[in-house]
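Case study B.
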Amino acid sequence: MSRYAADAGFEVVIGLEIHAQLATRSKIFSGASTAFGAEPNVQACAVDLGLPGVLPVFNEGALKMATLFGLAINAEIAKVSSFDRKNYFYPDLPKGYQITQLARPIVSGGQVRIQVGEGDQAYQKTINVTRAHLEEDAGKSLHENFESVTGIDLNRAGTPLIEIVSEPEMASAEEAVAYARKIHAIVQYIGICDGNMQEGSFRVDANVSVREKGQTELGTRTEIKNLNSFRFLQRAIEFEIERQIDVIESGQSVVQATRLYDPQKDETRLMRTKEEAEDYRYFPDPDLLPITLSEAQIEQWRAELPELPDAKAERYQAEYGLNRYDATVLTASRATANYFEAVLSAYPKNPKLAANWVQGSLAALLNRLEIDASQSPVKPEVLATLLERIDDGTLSNKLAREVFEVLAEDTDKTVDGIIEERGLKQITDSSEIEALVDKVIADNPGQVAAYRGGKDKLFGFFVGQVMKATGGKANPKAVNEILKSRLDS
Amino acid sequence: MSSNSSSNDQDPTGLLNASIRDLKTRLDRGDHSPMSLSAFFAERIERLDPALNSFISTQIPEIEQTELKGDLAGIPFAHKDIFCVQQGRTTCGSKMLADWHAPYSATVHEKLAAQGAVLLGKTNMDEFAMGSSNENSYFGAVSNPWDVNRVPGGSSGGSAAAVAARLVPFATGSDTGGSIRQPAAFCGVTGIKPTYGRVSRYGMIAYASSFDQAGVIAKTAEDCAVVLNQISGVDRRDSTSSPEPVVDFTADLEKPLSGLKIGVPKQWFSEALDNRVAEQVEAAIAELECAGGTRVEIDLPDADIALSAYYLLAPAEASSNLSRFDGVRFGYRCDNPQDITDLFERSRSEGFGPEVQRRILAGTYALSAGYYDAFYLRAQKARRLIAGHFEQALSQCDVIAGPVTPTVAFKKGEHSADPAQMYLQDLFTIPVNLAGLPGMSVPAGFVDGLPVGLQLIGRHFAEAQILNVAHQYQQRVDFHQRIPPGFGGEGFGGDEHNTGGAA
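Model:
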């Protein structure tokens, strides 16, 4: 719940439309490559250019991917789905229409579970997915590097997309982000989308409306287009909620419109109102036959689905004794879950410790480097060794964190090598500790007298002195025991 | 029996009326080289076409010195200029594509080229195949070889006129609502529109995708069969092309017609049909009865509904298909566009002719929010209704025989002012496209020296059967051998239904 909205007596209704580029090698209706980053227009064949006389041929790979998505969210898979044309003129839309699915989408009626908030504050919620349909992406208009003209790059034209449409069931920017992240995780789990938001592989449109608490009908919504990061999604929705409440509170009405988020100014601005919206003149595409799917084919593909985040989280709780929050965080991305499982397979003894480290130091490192777990400079086997050295008493948690930082800096180093080289090894040899304790007692006769006279609190002083003398490497438990026996005797 | 290779006064070399098989034999025998055969027809095009304007562009054939291989090796032909061919221009009869060079070739062209057929040029047509008179071409109207003041029909008017004038042995065409059959009828040549999906549409510039079908215009059913054998078949580049196996369409040509049930649609012989055209068509049906067929009266109602449905659905598809001509990537672009909207609007309003604009507007309207259900969906329903009528009719007979057009070729300009009157030209051809069935036009007599066509309609993928019927008919008459005066022939045989044959 948005604090601003709640304070003002409003509630928020959000629905998302997510465009995920499917990871097929070739385009949805042509044989051209879908690889990102090529020179403009080198990956656009006659079909992508919309030349006279060419015809689309459906890439069955996209069908499988869309079906896998539907199965992953427990949706209904259409036995017969079909393509329609959405007609509008735009310079980077080569045919003057986009091939999409309006009347008979491949996927309808699914659910995803989201977790919102952190730790004890976290709550779970189910969001319904109305539909997901196949369509082709448009090209790109390039305004930079040109003077008084616009460049057109059609490499992206014809890249397969699924558009995933949610019910308007999210009540805050946090819920919207959690939902988008969950969809992002699912498409990556099942390997149908690389999820790269910078490159536009995963883009979000947010439909936002507000209404006074208790009001049953929905408020007038605005649609914020093409949000390509979770941060922008969050900020754009927050801005839009506040803007709409301000509009209503100033006695005006929200205008149904499409808006764009400007990250530089952190605001949304008007793109076009509903009145200016085009009539897309949808009709069935006569160039493409309906897509038919047999039950057997659907079941065969279902069998290929990997373990999905929700199932994985359940298993982590059951098998490793993790709590629901940790299990959900660890399974939120396939890369993180894979990493966690790799650590456990190298060192299965202490899943809880592994979970803490993956969510703690590792997550912080990945965040800092802006990479995912699969790209971590500290490999799972290396982290496993580190955990082992904690469990066997070689390293304290504090020392282990130091070692981890060194590992992150220098991937050639090993855990044991760093311990050796830096002399970080915890002192557990009791004779060595005894000698140090004796020296501390001898050096501080006044404090010893005071302690023995009843000032129990001075015990901490002695512990500190011993640790200082060892540079923090003494095993704290051993120090305590030896000090106690010497002072109390 | 007539002989297709007979040489006489009208055809001293015997080449004008030679069948494709005859030409092939002559080439194989060494009577002609592929080069000299092409030169023979190329010379005719150069000499005779100025009176017709049936070609938009001609090509100097690229014949290698090495021996041509394939079933059509060395046979000259022309493409309707709707088929993309990598060599030369592909204009679709439009200013929009007046200078456009396709960077790829249509499947139909690739198949013909692979069999050694020699392309002599691209024929004139109504702009984007929209028209029934060939007066809607940016490259000017085409004249009917039987009377140059009259239209050749459309939209494949150039192909029909060129074949009628013996400028090429055969030409390709496309038929969306009658665009092969109607001009074939007006020009006295044989044309076949195969079943929808029989021939790949890849590289054939789209007018109305769910109706468009490529086909052949030639002198005889046999030639149509020979060419259809080469261009038919499933194409992975056209999802709507049919996996139905391709049979040898020449295999059944000689089959006798005994036992054949010929359905004659009562409703087509109404006041809409010119009496004298009706007489010729009736005579042709009688000839088929003489050949062993049995006449069966059938019902094919609602031709008027079919016409209305077609003129909603085809423009609706066209309005979308022609959106790609926006001046951005290829084709005509207006001078000095002020902004992108100006570029779109002026490129399109300057690049498209009036009939194309009329259909784009009609189609845009039919698809608009609030009208879609009343227009597009109702028209789709009508389409299913018409298809049902045919299914019912073809359960009572083997083939349907009737008129192709309500009249013979009309004068240039006669219907130009009234599009609705022009659309009536397609009354008997459009229902066949709505049902996706194969249809033919076969020369079946003359009225006032102008050809009349007999339409034959078969079941889905039963091209072999209507070709058989047409071929048997052509063994008994000689209308298909008449050469228009001034084009190597010495006139026609008169108005009477001459069953005498030529030999």
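Chain A touches chain B through 29 residues (CB under 8 Å). The remaining cases will be described in the next quarterly update.
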